[in-house]
Write a structure and sequence with these properties.
The chain is an alpha/beta fold. Helices cover about 40% and strands about 10% of the residues. The protein has a four-stranded parallel beta sheet with strand order 2-1-3-4, covered by helices on one side.
């Protein structure tokens, strides 16, 4: 019998960096971190690498919800698995703004790394060897992180998609 595993699927490298940090600081359960985008990828391609009783967490951006067909097909395939969506209000930058109490992305980018653009912010974030200090210096509040899924819950209902967004990933 296979051992249950925990998987965190992310869309971009900034999410990967943050997931690794959250795992290492024991804010989320230990598990494997893999890249997969429910909006663009086909779940069938990774389906055989996981077991039905594994715990699957998908970090989902909600700033671009145009590929509904692909997303919906993936959710239907996931029904056979123990999965949950970790909903980001728009994207990681918006989540960090909220959890660090920043007024907007411009303030976030400047306060974290003294940069102006999202691309430069993402690049610096991914290369940050002291991410724990950067987050601490910006009053990162994990309780506020990934805590706003209401709009996306409404979007799921409107599009006839049934998926759990009440995830138990925190330690």
């Amino acid at each position: 019998m296979s051992r249950k595993q925990v998987f965190y699927f992310y869309e971009g490298e900034t999410e990967k960096k943050l997931l690794e940090f959250l795992k290492n600081t024991k804010k989320i359960s230990s598990g494997k971190v893999r890249k997969f985008n429910l909006w663009k990828g086909r779940f069938r391609k990774i389906q055989r690498t996981i077991n039905k009783d594994d715990k699957l967490f998908f970090v989902v951006d909600t700033d671009d919800v145009t590929n509904t067909e692909c997303f919906s097909k993936n959710i239907k395939l996931l029904k056979l698995y123990n999965f949950c969506l970790i909903v980001q209000h728009k994207n990681l930058e918006e989540e960090l703004c909220f959890s660090c109490n920043k007024a907007n992305n411009k303030k976030l980018f400047n306060d974290f790394y003294k940069v102006q653009s999202a691309d430069k912010f993402k690049s610096k974030f991914c290369r940050d060897k002291g991410i724990d200090l950067t987050l601490s210096n910006n009053d990162f509040n994990f309780k506020n992180f990934w805590s706003r899924s209401g709009d996306f819950s409404d979007w799921l209902k409107k599009n006839g998609i049934s998926a759990s967004i009440e995830c138990n990933y925190k330690v």
